[in-house]
Amino acid sequence: MSKQSQQPPDDMTQRAPSDHLGPDYKPTDQKPTATVSTKVAHENVTILPQTPQLIALLTMIRDKNTNRADFIFYSNRINRLLVEEALNHLPVHPHTVTTPVGRPYAGVAFEGKICGVSIMRAGEAMEQALRECCRSVRIGKILIQRDEETSKPRLFYDKLPEDVGERWVLLLDPMLATGESYIHPISRAGNEELANVVLEAAVETGRIG
């Protein structure tokens, strides 16, 4: 295959936002340009910081030559970053502890309990990352499929912790397109269990390769 045929089409390249990435000590003109996600004008939406580490991981999983084992490994790394960022958005309260040398340490602790709810089946891929960050965390499941007659998302199955209404819910799904799949679980906040929801997802915006 020629080098020219390996290049993405011009329209695809133009759609992909880009930025210079690299360590702070290097001048901008010495940093490579890479595809990044742009910020959005919504205060309740947070995009992962577009760090060289994240972009390197995304490069690996987007490479058609990456084998299955490496794809799983690097995807799990990205899922871990998503979980850690989601935890940063949960409320905390002051919590002072005593260190082994007898000194006080003014820290914080999360307010309330946490649980995960994975949207089957793709969301189950993020459960490992959540368990690595939150020991003994409870995880529920929701299955949403399209109704053949109406073409609308329909809730087919859910199994949630009994006290889910008293917990902060991390909604797990690695793929977010139109967002219709989340209407059912999140809308339950108005009349049922899910009161506090933090959605974790990898958003695909346009074709970038």
Short descriptors:
23% helix, 209 residues, disordered N terminus, Rossmann fold, 9 strands, 2 domains, two-stranded antiparallel sheet, alpha/beta, five-stranded mixed sheet
Set down the secondary structure blueprint:
Layout: H1 10-15, E1 18-20, E2 33-35, H2 52-62, H3 68-87, E3 92-98, E4 104-110, E5 113-120, H4 127-133, E6 138-146, E7 153-159, E8 167-172, H5 183-187, E9 196-200
Parallel strand pairs: 5-6, 5-8, 8-9
Antiparallel strand pairs: 1-2, 3-4, 6-7
Overview of the structural elements:
- Residues 17-29 have a biased composition (Basic and acidic residues).
- Pathway: Pyrimidine metabolism; UMP biosynthesis via salvage pathway; UMP from uracil: step 1/1.
- Residues 49-188 form the Phosphoribosyltransferase domain.
- There is one protein chain.
- This protein is an alpha/beta fold.
- It folds into two domains: 12-87, no CATH class; 113-200, Rossmann fold.
- The protein is built from five helices and nine strands; from the N terminus they run αββααβββαβββαβ.
- It has helices spanning 10-15, 52-62, 68-87, 127-133, 183-187; strands at residues 18-20, 33-35, 92-98, 104-110, 113-120, 138-146, 153-159, 167-172, 196-200.
- The strands form three sheets. Strands 7-6-5-8-9 form a five-stranded mixed β-sheet. It has a two-stranded antiparallel sheet with strand order 1-2. A two-stranded antiparallel sheet has the order 3-4.
- α2 packs antiparallel against α3 and α3 packs across α4 (127-133).
- The longest helix has 20 residues, at 68-87.
- It is globular.
- The two termini are 18 Å apart.
- The relative contact order is 0.13.
